[in-house]
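FORM 7B: Structural annotation worksheet

SECTION A. Query
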Amino acid sequence: MVIGAGLCFAAVFPGCSFLINRRLCGGTLVTDLRGIALLSGLVFVIAMCCEATINPVYEYFHERKLWEYRLFPLHDGNLSALAVLVWTSYGVHLYFLNQYLDRLFAGKRRRVLYKGMLIGAEAPLLWEVLGNGFFLLLVGEYYAYYNPGELFHLTSLQVVPIYMVCVTIGLLVYEWVKRQDLGWRTTGLLYAAGAGFLAVG
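SECTION B. Predicted structure
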């Protein structure tokens, strides 16, 4: 049931993102499979590295975790095995959203910073809320339970600045990787590294 919900999430949310961002881009949206796979792989790896680092640091200073994964938890609840579906599907969404934001901030000197701030707010306040609501509806459990309760444990305002920093760094890495014109082998290595990291949890 949980895996089925994860597969459904990985199909529905990127599909909705494609339709919304295509409309925002005036009906034209690039769908390069190599680019989609590369960004999804980067998001998969970078997001998990951030989660495995940030939550223990937060716990050290606050004596409780910022979030706890409830579905297929790994690495002491800091990560979930469903990351292979959830984070990669967010990478697909980000590929589409990035095209709209590139148009929105075209010609801006601090384009990456602006995108990082916007995505850093969108990811927890929209994506995580919808994602947690989706899993609560289908399987009756939070995907990621946030201990601060100001937003019904669906997400937390405390994570927004963290997301902004991590997303901005991730976008800089993505811009650099794109300039290298790396092939499918690098994308495969990203997914293999992410799967290996989950496996040791």
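SECTION C. Observations
The chain is about 70% helix and 5% strand. The radius of gyration is 16 Å.

SECTION D. Sign-off
Analyst initials: ____
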